Automatic annotation (TrEMBL):
Keywords: Membrane, Transmembrane, Transmembrane helix. It holds the Pfam family DUF2062. Residues 27-172 form the DUF2062 domain. This is DUF2062 domain-containing protein.
Length: 203
């Protein structure tokens, strides 16, 4: 296969690279955006999938973001592939801010005192004490705060994503139509049509 890696990476390496890119997050996000644009689905399905992934990233259910995003995408008739890309909203750079903000909002909505505990400590405390011990002081308020914040971010992501995908698909359809017309004109004039030209129309 052309451009295939000589030494294939294992599953853990691919997971690590998805969370900690080799180069930069900006470059990785541009790559993700291009991949999302090229998903074969309706603008709604793609945008709903990305929004579902973004919403899942605002929940403290670490390890279940993909499953939750797939479930939400299914309920919204969204693309599960797009949902997987949408979970990139939650990454090592954004998680501290997400955890701190959802925790603060959740405690405010529940009317409870945090006793000085900071949401940025959630990751390390979770690894040490586990899910059950963290339910009342961390996970419950983060869930309560994460739902409205996730909904807000999901809506804010859905609208521009749908518009961008619709515009991209329209441009792509116009380009395919132009190539089809050019191909017909070439055939009518007796010129040879290459396999590359046929693939350009089919893609």
């Amino acid at each position: 296969m052309l451009f295939k890696r000589r030494n294939q990476e294992n599953r853990w390496t691919r997971l690590r690279v998805s969370m900690l890119p080799r180069r930069s997050y900006g470059r990785s996000m541009r790559y993700y955006a291009k991949r999302v644009m090229r998903i074969r689905a309706t603008p709604h399905a793609i945008a709903a999938g990305v929004a579902a992934g973004a919403f899942a990233s605002f929940t403290p259910l670490m390890g279940f973001h993909f499953i939750l995003s797939f479930l939400l995408a299914f309920l919204l008739r969204g693309s599960m592939i797009a949902a997987a890309f949408g979970t990139a909203v939650g990454n090592p750079l954004t998680f501290p801010a997400i955890w701190a903000s959802t925790l603060s909002l959740g405690r405010w909505l529940l009317g409870v005192d945090g006793n000085g505990a900071d949401g940025t400590e959630f990751g390390s405390v979770f690894a040490e004490q586990g899910f059950v011990a963290l339910w009342q002081p961390f996970i419950k308020p983060m869930l309560v705060g994460g739902v409205p914040m996730g909904l807000l971010v999901g809506v804010l992501i859905y609208i521009p994503t749908r518009m961008a995908v619709a515009a991209f698909q329209m441009r792509r359809a116009a380009q395919k139509a132009e190539r089809a017309i050019a191909l017909q004109e070439s055939q009518a004039s007796g010129h040879d049509v290459t396999e590359h030209d046929r693939r350009g129309i089919a893609s």
